[in-house]
């Protein structure tokens, strides 16, 4: 086992990783930008190294600076968290060159799933069902328009290099396709430096159901059940839960097997998530695989009683996974909500400012708060505006929803605009309580909820 690891991240996920490392008796090294010198993750770690100015590209995305901090501190491994360098195969390779263990999958597996188009082609060969569509290399506008007509409108144009819902356009008919394609390309080029797109059938009212997979370096791979992340705004998750309400065991098993097949097909090691759309027809279709720990991993931890960061660290150290598929159990229901600094009065655009007052209800077996900020801290334009994740657990979904209402009602935050009222309205909503959820839920109900 490692004696010291560096956490190449900030905020709640850095704090969460540090806590597990500490429990395992591993010393922790934080890195931070100048803006974060006084932040929670720095205070929590055993030591901290400055890696550059506030903008991410000058600090948290600077592989060289992070590797230098690892060398100087004597860390043996690097946990990348999510975002930043977590899905950067070049960084994973650079770690290996320096004799550092990257706590994540092999670079080849990151690359295999790095582009949505290539990933779909790979999954097709592995026999994993796909969202119908075109993911070819020929990017000629006429070819793409022909593919869209063949797929049948509405279609979704997606940036192949996409993430965070950027570069996505729904197209309802052939006459607007060319203009939407041009717009999607511009957006993709600006956000990812890569204008390639794929075209998919736009499913109506699907659910987003993803499978948590895990694999070790001894050839074992298993699934840790699913998460339903259908409550989204602009294709971004707001509420996540496990298990997916109403999913029958046979479908759960088939989705789990497909996800494990996907992981095996690319020689996966570590924690990964295979994202599917679940159609109204009961069919499930591969969208993409995220080759890292997900923001919403705590709901899986709450129903399985496992610590996924511990598993990541153990597997990266070469240990086999702590249990076999038939030993994985789940119990009850867990729901996570993402508390963001964003302004409801301005279409939920990210908000900035200082947190004047912040109080969460006391955590316990039924409530977990993952946060990386404290009263007095500022939410700036430089980073993700997430303030905290509130995660509730209870023996069934209805009880968990009641816990969620109570937790949100007892949360106090003053100083900047947040989505707290929206989260509370969702928790109070009868349609949410009845689990009548799909990816259009928030768009449909937003006006009523506000
Ligand atoms: P990103 O990587 O940018 O987050 P994803 O491919 O993961 O993009 O898709 C994000 C969300 O967009 C999904 O959870 C779903 O709500 C919606 N979405 C993606 N593909 C489709 C599709 N073919 N039909 C309907 N909705 C889709």
TrEMBL record:
GO molecular function, one term: ATP binding
Domain ATP-grasp positions: 120-317
Keyword Membrane assigned: no
Domain (Biotin carboxylation) ranges: 1-447
Keyword Protein transport applies: no
Key words, A-Z: ATP-binding, Biotin, Ligase, Nucleotide-binding, Transit peptide
Cofactor(s) this protein requires: biotin
Protein's name according to its UniProt entry: 3-methylcrotonyl-CoA carboxylase alpha subunit
Full protein segment contained here: 1 to 450 of 666
């Amino acid at each position: 086992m490692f004696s010291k690891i560096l956490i190449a991240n900030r905020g709640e996920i850095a704090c969460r990783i540090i806590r597990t490392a500490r429990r395992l008796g591993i010393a922790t090294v934080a890195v931070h930008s100048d803006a974060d010198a006084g932040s929670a993750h720095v205070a929590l770690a055993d030591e901290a190294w400055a890696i550059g100015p506030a903008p991410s590209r000058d600090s948290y995305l600077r592989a060289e600076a992070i590797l230098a901090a690892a060398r100087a501190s004597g860390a043996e491994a690097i946990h990348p968290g999510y975002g930043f360098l977590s899905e950067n195969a070049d960084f994973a390779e650079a770690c290996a060159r320096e004799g550092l263990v990257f706590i994540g999958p092999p670079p080849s597996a990151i690359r295999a799933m790095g582009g949505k188009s290539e990933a779909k082609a790979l999954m097709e060969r592995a026999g994993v069902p796909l969202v119908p569509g075109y993911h070819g290399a020929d990017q000629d506008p006429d070819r793409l328009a022909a593919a869209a007509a063949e797929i049948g409108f509405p279609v979704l144009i997606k940036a192949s290099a996409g993430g965070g819902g950027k570069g996505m356009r729904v197209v309802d008919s052939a006459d607007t396709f060319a203009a939407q394609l041009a717009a999607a390309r511009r957006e993709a080029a600006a956000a990812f430096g890569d204008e390639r797109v794929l075209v998919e059938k736009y499913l109506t009212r699907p659910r987003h159901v993803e499978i948590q997979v895990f694999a070790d370096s001894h050839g074992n791979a298993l699934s840790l059940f699913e998460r339903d992340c259908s409550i989204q705004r602009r294709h971004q998750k707001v509420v996540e839960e496990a298990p997916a309400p109403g999913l029958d065991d046979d479908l759960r098993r088939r989705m789990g097997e497909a996800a494990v097949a996907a992981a095996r097909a690319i020689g996966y090691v570590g924690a990964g998530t295979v994202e599917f759309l679940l159609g109204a027809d009961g069919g499930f279709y591969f969208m993409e695989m995220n080759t890292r720990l997900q923001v919403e991993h705590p709901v899986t931890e709450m129903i399985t009683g496992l610590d996924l960061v511990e598993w990541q660290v153990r597997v990266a150290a070469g240990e086999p996974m702590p249990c076999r598929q038939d030993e994985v159990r789940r119990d009850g229901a867990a729901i996570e909500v993402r508390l963001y600094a964003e302004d409801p009065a301005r279409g939920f655009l990210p908000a900035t400012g200082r947190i004047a007052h912040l109080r969460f209800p006391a955590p316990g077996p039924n409530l977990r708060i993952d946060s990386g900020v404290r009263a007095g801290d500022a939410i700036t334009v430089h980073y993700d505006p997430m303030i905290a994740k509130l995660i509730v657990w209870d023996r069934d979904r209805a009880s968990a929803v009641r816990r969620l209402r109570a937790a949100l009602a007892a949360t106090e935050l003053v100083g900047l605009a947040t989505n707290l009222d929206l989260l509370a309205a969702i928790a109070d909503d009868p349609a949410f309580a009845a689990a009548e959820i799909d990816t259009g839920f928030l768009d449909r109900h937003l006006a009523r909820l506000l």
